[in-house]
Specification:
There is one protein chain. The protein is mainly alpha-helical. It is built from eleven helices and four strands; from the N terminus they run H-H-H-E-H-E-E-E-H-H-H-H-H-H-H. It has two domains: 58 residues; 200 residues, no CATH class. Strands 1-2-4-3 form a four-stranded mixed beta sheet, sandwiched between helices. The N and C termini lie far apart (43 Å). The structure holds zinc ion. The site of zinc ion has 6 residues, from helix 6 and helix 9. Zinc ion binds next to helix 6 and helix 9.
């Protein structure tokens, strides 16, 4: 464990330096457009993720343990939430249909509707998805909700949630018992994902929703509406912790990526 911890520190120091050099060189000598820079940043984030993956493989957590962590984490999170059952949309049916297309079959995918006016949804390790009533009031049809559910499930299909916990465990050098890991998980569960992870969850989210028979136009109309909401909030008032109304990536960027997706 001690050696892994040192390795993590070492990679952590070099990554920002490498990133800056790489982006600067490409920017100065290739006359890249703003759009190409965005692609470069995406590549850098992707590479960083791959390097970190080697580190995470050392401290891998089984699906069974991830589910256990998820159950304990949900108990903690739910203490602060008001859970409600009723809503005009049949979220249960939508969720079941999308869940049928997942690859991580052992993960305990499920959801809770949270009484909260904020337009948001989020997921935690072990498969729980929290959907705010504010988001359900905001969307107009099943296709739009299907995209949001697909996106949230994708954060776990791509292991984004458990990775945050693994980083927290690596960084704090704690004893790896369930209680300690759950505490570490609680301290990081609502930290935002990076831009590349958001694009990745959008892409897989669209695939999962269409596989379940929903129209991908729902993803596009969702981001059109979100764009208007972003303008209402203004750049400075956006919540960095919100999975949809954050400053990066913007609704416009995300919609553009989905439009470019190949079937
Ligand atoms: Zn997300």
């Amino acid at each position: 464990m001690e050696m892994h911890f040192q390795l993590g520190k070492c990679i952590g120091i070099f990554q920002p330096f490498w990133k800056i050099i790489f982006i600067t060189v490409l920017f100065l000598f290739t006359g890249t457009s703003a759009f190409a820079q965005d692609d470069i940043l995406e590549d850098v984030l992707k590479t960083t993720d791959q390097l970190n993956q080697q580190l995470l493989n050392i401290t891998s957590i089984s699906d069974k343990d991830e589910n256990k962590i998820g159950i304990e984490l949900d108990k903690e999170i739910s203490k602060k939430l008001i859970i409600t059952e009723s809503h005009k949309f049949n979220v249960g049916l939508l969720f079941q249909k999308i869940k049928a297309g997942v690859s991580r079959k052992k993960i305990n995918y499920r959801f809770k509707i949270v009484k909260n006016k904020e337009v948001n949804a989020y997921s935690i390790a072990g498969g729980m998805v929290y959907i705010n009533t504010g988001l359900l009031d905001f969307v107009s049809n099943d296709d739009e909700i299907a995209f949001v559910i697909g996106h949230e499930i994708s954060h776990n299909e791509k292991k984004h949630c458990i990775k945050k916990i693994q980083y927290a465990v690596l960084a704090s050098n704690i004893n790896q018992n369930l209680g300690a890991i759950v505490q570490a998980a609680y301290s990081v569960y609502n930290l935002p994902f990076n831009k590349y992870q958001e694009y990745e969850a959008d892409e897989l989210g669209v695939k999962l929703m269409t596989k379940a028979g929903y129209d991908r136009k729902g993803a596009l109309s969702f981001f059109d509406k979100l764009k208007k909401l972003e303008q209402k909030y203004g750049e400075e008032n956006r919540d960095a912790l919100n999975d949809f109304i954050s400053s990066h990536p913007t609704a416009e960027d995300r919609k553009e990526k989905i439009e470019k997706m190949q079937d």
